[in-house]
Amino acid sequence: MPLVSRISIAPVKGLALVHPDAVTLEETGVAANRRFHIVDAEGRRYNQLRNGELVRIAPEYDPESGRLTLRFPDGTVADGTVAPGEEITTDFYGRPVTGNIVVGPWSDALSSWAGRPLRLVQSAPGLAVDRRRGNVSLVSTASLAELARQGGQPEPVDGRRFRMLFELDDCEPHEEDGWIKRRLRIGEALVYLRNDVGRCAITTQNPETGVPDFDTLRAISAYRELTENEAGKKHIPFGVFGEVVEPGRVALGDTAEAVELSLLA
What we know:
Elements: E1 3-7, E2 22-25, E3 36-40, E4 58-62, E5 67-71, E6 77-81, E7 83-92, E8 95-103, H1 106-114, E9 118-123, E10 136-140, H2 141-150, E11 166-169, E12 183-186, E13 189-198, H3 216-223, E14 227-228, E15 234-235, E16 237-246, E17 248-251, E18 256-259
Parallel strand pairs: 10-11
Antiparallel strand pairs: 1-11, 2-17, 3-9, 4-5, 5-6, 7-8, 8-9, 10-16, 12-13, 12-18, 13-16, 14-15
């Protein structure tokens, strides 16, 4: 049976991932996941496509206390308790997300590191995701190994490239695709998997350095057909996403199993 082998969250979109041993899936997803994002002086999202080296900044965030720490590659640390400032609306692929520019040392530290004016924004839980009704995502390690085989890589592809919430062991390659439009019991939670995830050039970047070093898009396209997102647009699929139906705790080693509707009573 598939087992949860890695959990990955990004308190700040685009920065290094954090790997807790367990998370609680709420209706909006994991409370600490993607609570913050970065914008430039014009209010446009500043992400890995614009600067891959963002992944070298390590975040720590406690949603209960509101304490946020950013550790930069040069040893600089920006730390404090988040306080909401000016309201701002950010465009997330045509979806407006309202948040607040946070008051504290983080925007100045990010600006100094990047060499350009940047601002750190906090939004409500679940808003700063790239997919509508898509606060849960997962991929199997077998799919990562198959991508490596197809792409001529000697080792399995590092799942951090795809920045998925869960990675699962003990699956067949792309077995997760068969769970689309079905409910999945994962740990104590129940999720509904809506569709596969369309991929972009961020996945070509090394998850440690942010430097492109493997053409994932070409490798996936060479052996997988294009699929459509929920708006009917063609994309390159890898991994699946969905939404929380029943909240619950998910920990490393928990099982994941597709559930028939007749068994949910």
